[in-house]
Design goal:
With about 575 residues, this protein is an alpha/beta fold. Helices cover about 50% and strands about 10% of the residues. Helix 9 packs across helix 10 and helix 20 runs antiparallel to helix 21.
Length: about 575
């Protein structure tokens, strides 16, 4: 007799044999017992989790000759109907591959066959596997029959891609979602198979097989077949790793140890070992993510399924002083690199560069730790003072009533420690309130500091103070300021920002003054009386006539206005 693989030999024959899908099997059993069975079902879920097997069990349970004798409902698998179904010779259960029979003509044959009464059982069951492969026209041809089938017909549709099934089909049937199995559920079932077959299997080896199956029991049974063919009746973890193509524990431990100890000198030897072994770097990154996830569980005090106490102790020693935050960051970096390395021309180089970066990473600092380092209210550190450039010396004016120009503005570089937001207007002044009157010379010398303080109160006022305001006079506490540029806008801006300027002067000098704009009737001082005007005249402020004659002499020009004047006469 030909050998039958484990996946077929251990196919579930009863509802109780289905692994990990109790939410579905119990619902179907109760529906049969209460005679509330729907006319259409849609079984959806990943591969190898029991969709088709459950459909066959349901078909046998519906037509079983002893259906009412077994509680909870199960097919007896002994009566003639059950035996015929198990041996694929029952005419009342039709199983169709939707990938092969997906045209309108195939659905029409199903519609015609559905009209015929069952040959022996109570119901005629149509099982359409991979139903998402039907064409749009075939689905449309199937709608009417699926919505109102004959009373003796039940349709069971199975698919791995439910999103490809039209909503008009999904709304006409009851949907059951089969979930992927956990590694623990799969490993326990593999243990039952190994014990029944008389094999000596290490639990860690079975758990490794279960993890490689990625939620599919059928895949796990196929992998177990391969491992048994390699190592006969004694299944060990090392032998299972060789067959599955997974990396040895030594590679994972070595990589983790290098990162934990920040040992860059050991990287060349590690890279050379990986190259000589022909390592699949995508597989290595996937294994590292699983290994570091187990380390997170260990640090959190959680149990790690499939790992012995000895392995847990070894894992704890390997991770060293790595924290949970460090491991979370490494897992995230490894996952990102796994996606990127698929499209890399040189996966080895990409991995080695990333590994070097991981080894040199600084340890993560938790937000809680940073918050604990912030001083309390009573121990608050003093605010960093903002450096202020020294103002250029300004000559003392001869008369208090003469307008005094503002010193030339020196741009200041704001340090990183400067406050991000301006201080509120109610902030305390940095200088004590003085009793003596403020002198004009002192005010002029402190103008840059005043502008700097004004920048923290109102940036707009600071811009005007730097570029547009000149001191006209200071009489007692009355300070008169005139905008350089004439116009209503500049005059109104000065009036609006006067309180801010007063506050800045108070902060810097400690003197309270009252700022008022210069009256429109006040005449501007002569240009030559201003130091700025004098500087301008020295730097090229020549008369327009001198400039005109200079250009004429350099470019050989001719004064055409004189000719035009003569011709006009």
């Amino acid at each position: 007799m030909a050998y039958q693989v484990l996946a077929r030999r251990w196919r579930p024959q009863k509802f109780s044999d289905v692994v990990g899908q109790e939410h579905i099997t119990r619902t179907l059993q109760n529906a049969i017992a209460q005679e509330r069975l729907a006319h259409g079902f849609l079984f959806t879920g990943p591969r190898g989790v029991g969709k088709t097997s459950t459909a066959r069990i349901l078909a046998r349970a519906i037509n079983c000759e002893r259906a009412g004798e077994i509680v909870p409902v199960e097919p007896c698998n002994v009566c003639e109907t059950c035996r015929a179904l198990l041996e694929d010779r029952e005419l009342d259960v039709v199983e169709i591959d939707g990938a092969s029979y997906n045209k309108v003509e195939d659905i029409r044959r199903i519609n015609e066959a559905a009209r015929l009464a069952p040959a022996a059982g109570d119901k005629k069951v149509f099982i359409i596997d991979e139903v998402h492969m039907l064409t749009t026209a075939a689905f449309n041809a199937f709608l009417k029959t699926l919505e109102e089938p004959p009373s003796h017909v039940i349709f069971i549709l199975a698919t791995t891609d439910v999103h490809k099934v039209p909503s008009t089909i999904r709304s006409r049937v009851q949907r059951f979602d089969f979930r992927p199995l956990s590694p623990l559920e799969i490993s326990q079932h593999l243990g039952v198979i190994a014990a029944a077959e008389g094999w000596n299997a290490e639990p860690e080896a079975l758990f490794q097989i279960a993890r490689a199956a990625d939620g599919s029991l059928r895949d796990a049974e196929g992998l177990l077949d391969q491992v048994v063919a390699y190592c006969a009746d004694n299944i060990t973890l090392d032998e299972a790793r060789k067959v599955l193509g997974t990396l040895s524990m030594a590679v994972l431990e070595n990589a983790t140890s290098l990162v934990a100890s920040q040992n860059t000198s050991g990287l060349p030897e590690f890279f050379d070992t990986l190259a000589r072994q022909g390592t699949d770097y995508s597989l290595l990154l996937r294994e590292l993510q699983g290994y570091w996830t187990d380390a997170v569980f260990l640090l959190q005090g959680l149990s790690i399924p499939g790992r012995s106490q000895e392995e847990c102790d070894s894992l704890r020693a390997v991770i060293g002083d790595l924290t949970v935050d460090d491991l979370f960051r490494l897992i995230r970096l490894a996952a990102t690199l796994e996606d990127e390395i698929k499209w890399s021309v040189s996966p080895r180089t990409r991995f080695e560069i990333s590994m070097l970066r991981w080894v040199t990473l600084d340890r993560a600092v938790s937000i809680k730790h940073l918050l604990e380092r912030i001083p309390k209210d009573g121990d608050a550190a003093p605010k960093a003072s903002r450096p202020v450039a020294k103002a250029a010396p300004t000559p003392r004016p001869s008369a208090a009533s003469a307008p005094v120009p503002r010193p030339a503005h020196t741009p200041l570089q704001k340090p990183v420690s400067a406050p991000a937001h301006p201080e509120p207007s109610t902030a305390k002044s940095s200088a004590p309130v003085r009793t003596s009157a403020l002198e004009l010379a002192e005010l002029t010398a402190s103008w840059e500091k005043i502008c700097d303080a004004l920048d923290h109160i109102s940036s707009a006022a600071s811009a005007f103070a730097h570029n547009d305001w000149d001191i006209v006079s200071l009489s007692g506490t009355a300070l008169t300021i005139r905008p350089k540029h004439q116009g209503k806008f500049h005059f109104e801006s000065l009036k609006a920002h006067a309180p801010s300027l007063e506050q800045a002067i108070l902060q810097v000098t400690g003197a309270k003054v009252k700022v008022s704009p210069a009256a429109a009737t006040e005449s501007a001082p002569a240009a030559t009386s201003s130091p700025a005007a004098k500087t301008e005249s020295k730097n090229g402020g020549a008369s327009s006539g001198d400039l005109f004659n200079s250009v004429m002499s350099q470019f050989g020009g001719e004064d055409v206005t004189q000719k035009m004047g003569k011709s006009g006469q």
